[in-house]
Amino acid sequence: MDAHAKTMMFYLPDTMVNWPWPRAINPHFEDVKIEVDAAFRDFRALCHESQEAFDKCDSARLSALAYSNAPREHLRIGCDLMNVFFIVEEYTDVENAAVTQEMVDIVLDALHDPHKMRPEGECILGEIVRQFWARAIQTASLSSQRHFLDSFTAYIRAVAVEALDREHSHCRSIQDYLKLRRDTCGAESCFAIHEMGMELPDEVFYHPLVVELVRCIVELILIDNDMASYNREQATGDENHNLITAIMLELSLDRSGAMAWAARYHAQVEMRFINGLAQVTSLGTCTDILVKYFDGIANWVRANHCWSYETQRYFGTRGAEIQQTRIVPLLPKVNSNDASSVAKINVADLSNIDVHRE
After folding, report:
1. What is the pLDDT of residues 312-344, one digit of tens each?
2. Measuring CA to CA, which residue among 218, 222, 216, 219 is closest to residue 273?
3. How far is CA 337 from CA 15, 49, 53, 94, 160, in A?
4. Residue 14 in contact with residue 306, Cβ under 8 Å?
5. What is the pLDDT of residues 9-48, one digit of tens each?
6. 335 vs 90 pLDDT, higher one
């Protein structure tokens, strides 16, 4: 293989070889997927072309993998939450900081008053979030509601910071990036679905050991997500908010070198989590609930990794092939007008893009 050909592909390490949690999927997946997909289309948040690309993301599959043991209603809420995350990303990724802040304010208002009807003509994000949260609070424990509101507020405010970075073409250092990305990935809000049937008092939930273990899982998810999404993001021009780019710039590594660095860091975080998990029973309170909670969020790491290859969001129709070979052909840059100019959102259908040829 000549030097030019090597630059047109990169190696994607398998970070999950030693992760103890196996793939599992919720038995209600198919039924709930039909239901939630139909409900989302009723919002008419996307043009036809963008909706087709959005459907290929198969966000309901991610929820079914992540909440494999959840009751049907909690799976439905988890699916609704995934749609919230994906549609917020698609709407804000193409906007400047000012417009993104307006969207953030709308989302927060809807979240804190889910029984108030949204104003006519308002951005559809408000109604999508309102309906999600109005449904969720019917079955969620009070403690899980508090914790969700805290983490989701941190997430949506971080989205506004990301927009400001994007507007100024700012790429952060590795540590500064990780600090922001822990919020923009939204993982902690996703964990609240596991907590919906539990009562975890704040003194337990915010115990330093619990906080550290949650942070480990968040980092494992964001590392895997940034590794899988890098190709898509460099093609669509959104690579500055990605760990691989931060590594490449700070450490002067090529793509494969940055991927290898990320995989080594992933292994270190895995070890921190496994070692810390063994100490949970020493807390002496709510240990049975905590063991169940951590089992659920640890499964999130496996779910996210599996979904990355089962969806068409990152690798088009070649997910299974890339999962086996680990070789990723570099995608060409996508003209922003080719993504979804009609709906002003960035749902690029990468399954229809040819990879670079020699």
Report:
1. 999 999 999 999 999 999 998 876 554 443 344
2. 216
3. 35, 13, 15, 11, 23
4. no
5. 999 999 999 999 999 999 999 999 999 999 999 999 999 9
6. 90
Q: Give me the helix-helix angle, 208-236 and 287-310, nearest 10°.
A: 10
Cα 22 off chain centre by: 19
Q: Positive or negative, the Cα torsion across 193, 186, 232, 302?
A: negative
**SS3 string of the chain?**
CCHHHHHCEEECCCCCCCCCCCCCCCCCHHHHHHHHHHHHHCCCCCCHHHHHHHHHHCHHHHHHHHCCCCCHHHHHHHHHHHHHHHHHHHHHCCCCHHHHHHHHHHHHHHHHCCCCCCCCCCCCHHHHHHHHHHHHCCCCCHHHHHHHHHHHHHHHHHHHHHHHHHHCCCCCCHHHHHHHHHHHCCHHHHHHHHHCCCCCCHHHHCCHHHHHHHHHHHHHHHHHHHHHHHHHHHHHCCCCCCHHHHHHHHHCCCHHHHHHHHHHHHHHHHHHHHHHHCCHHHHCCCHHHHHHHHHHHHHHHHHHHHHHHHCCCCCCCCHHHHHHHCEEECCCCCCHHHHHCCCCCCCCCHHHCCCCCC
Distance CA 135, CA 74 (A): 10
